[in-house]
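Fig. S4 source data, part A: sequence.
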Amino acid sequence: MLLTYMNIPHFSSLVQASAIIGIGASAATLMGGMVFPNNTDWRDIASWAILGSLISSHYTLVNKSFFR
């Protein structure tokens, strides 16, 4: 769980959560580009990034591990 004081998360935990979510979004975009190398439609690339950020934000903010 994010460290909170009066329900306000500390700045360092916000930076850590946003870094993990950003890495998840970029990894999903990279993997989507490797699976479909000839796809140049920006909507497909954006949907991979959205999917990666949704998955990584769920596991970051709910505080569950990936392999449990």
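Fig. S4 source data, part B ends here. Helices lie at 11-35, 42-61.
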